[in-house]
Amino acid sequence: MDSSSQENNDVDLQSSVTSIDHPSTGMSFNTLEDAENYYYRYAGGIGFSVRKSTTYFNTEGLYRRTLV
């Protein structure tokens, strides 16, 4: 790989990281999966990982999941 290709890759990676908005109160998502995917992308973009810690179910299904 030549240096110009490497520079282009660095720019593309940086662009994808900065395009993710910081989490804020009041954000809404269509599904739980959309919210999790957003948070995983955000976390990876700024340098930390996320794992599922606890999930809670009731008779209607999943109602709470904790990410750590």
TrEMBL record:
Descriptive protein name: FAR1 domain-containing protein
Phylogenetic classification of the source organism: Eukaryota, Viridiplantae, Streptophyta, Embryophyta, Tracheophyta
